[in-house]
Amino acid sequence: MKVVIFTEDKVGEGHYQAAKAIRHALGELSSGQVETSIVCGLRCIHPAVEWIIVKTYFALIRYCPSLWGFLYTHIRRTSFFQRVVFSWKLKRWLAREQPDMILCTHPTCIPPLARLKSRAPYSFKLGMVLTDYCFHPFSVSPYVDYYFVPHHSVKEKLVREFNIHPHKIFACGIPVHPVYEEQVKRLRPEAADGTQSLDKPVHLLILGGALGIGPIADIMDEFRDRSSQFRLTIICGKNRSLYNQLSRCAAPHIQVLGYVTNMAEWMQKADVVISKPGGLTVAETLVCRTPLFIIRPIPGQEEGNRMYLEQYGLSRYIENIGDLPRTLLEWLEDEQARLEWEKRVQEHRKEQAAYHIAKQVLSYFFP
Q: Quick one: where is this thing mainly located (predicted)?
C-alpha cells in the first residue's frame, strides 16, 4: 500500500514538519506494510512555479502584509491556472506513482486533485490535514474523503458552512512529532502545578519561524538591560542575516542560535515562548505546556490562530513590544492566572495527533 503526503517546505516549515510527524507515525504503526513518501506539491508541478510563488508570498508578508491579508480574505476561488495546469501536471504524476491515498498538509494541491477525482474514476483516497486553527476555502472540496482538523470548533465550521458530512471529519489535533510528547515526561515540576519561581531569571525562547520573521531584534533590545530578570534564547531559523546581526550585539544573558533540529528540547527548557502564532508552533507549545505570548501574526492563517487562542484563553497577544517585560512579569506573578491557563491547556492540547491520523489512514487499508 502506498501513501503520499503532499506538503510545502518553503512557505512554512510547519506544513513540512506535520508531514514528517505523520510519516513517522505511519511507519511505526504499519510495521513497514505501508510505503509513505513526502512530496512538495509546487516542486512536483514545476520548480519554476514553486520559485515564483514562494518569492511572491514572502515579498508580500515581509513588505506588504496588509495586501496579503486582503488577498487571503477575499480570494475564495482557485485560478484557472491552479485548477487546470496543476491538474494536468498531477495527472501525469498520478499515472506514474499510483498512490492508494494522498494526504495534504498544505492546501495547494487540493483543488487540482479534487478536480481530477471529479472527472475520472481515480481510486485513491484524498485527505486534508489542517495545520492551523482556521482554514481557507481552498482546503475544502466535496471530493476530499477525510478531513483531519485541530479542534471540534473547526469541525463544526466545516459542517455548518461547507456542508461536509461529520463522519468525514476527525478532530485529531495538529500532528506534532512524538519527540515533543516524550519531552513532556520530563516536564519541570513547577510548570506542572501552574506556579513559577521568580528567584532566578525567567528563560524566554524567542522564535520567528524557520525564516526568522518578526520584530526579533526589537525584542532583544527590549530585554538587553534586564539580565537580572530574564535570559533569552533567540532562534533565527534559516535567516542567516538576522543571526549575524543579533550575534554581533547580543548581551551575555542572550543566546542567539540559527536553525535547530531539537526545538522540542528548547521549548521544554523555556519558561515562556514568544513567537508569531504559526499552527505547528502553537500546537507544540500546547503539547509542551509552555506559555505562548504572541507577537506580530501574519494576516490570514496566523491571525486566525491568534483569534482561536484568545477565544479560549490559551495565549496572550502583545501588540506593543515595549509592553512585553511588564506583561510577562505580571502574568508570571499571578499564580491564579497561571493555574487557570494550565487548566485550559489541559482541555485543548491534543496528544498523539499524528498517531490518531495514522490509525485512521491504516483503517482504510486494514479495516
A: membrane
239 shares a domain with 324: yes
Instruction: Pull the grid cell for residue 343.
Output: 487548566
Q: Which has the closest alpha carbon to 218: 324, 316, 306?
A: 324
Which helix H or strand E contains 13, and what residues bound it?
A: helix 13-30
49-63, 173-187, 321-335: which range is least confident on average?
173-187
Please choose, from the candidates 213, 209, 155, 159, the residue with its C-alpha nearest in 3D space to the C-alpha of residue 350. 155
**Tally of residues, the chain:** 367
**Domain enclosing residue 63, as ranges:** 2-174+351-365
Bridge partners of 204, per DSSP, are 232, 272
Indicate if 12 and 160 belong to the same structural domain. Answer: yes
Average pLDDT over residues 180-195: 58
Q: Within 10 A of 337 (CB to CB), how many other CB atoms are there?
A: 15
Question: How far is C-alpha 211 from the chain's CA centre?
Answer: 14
Enter the pTM of the model.
Answer: 0.91
Q: What tens digit of pLDDT does each residue of 53-95 get?
A: 999 998 998 888 899 989 888 888 888 778 788 999 999 999 9
**Residue 120: phi, psi to the nearest 5?**
-150, 155
242 and 338 inside one domain: yes
Q: Tell me if 216 sits within 8 A of 236, measured CB to CB.
A: yes
CA distance 142 to 129: 15
Q: Which tens digit of pLDDT belongs to each residue from 25-45? A: 999 999 888 999 999 999 999
DSSP tag of 151: S
Same domain, 190 and 155: no
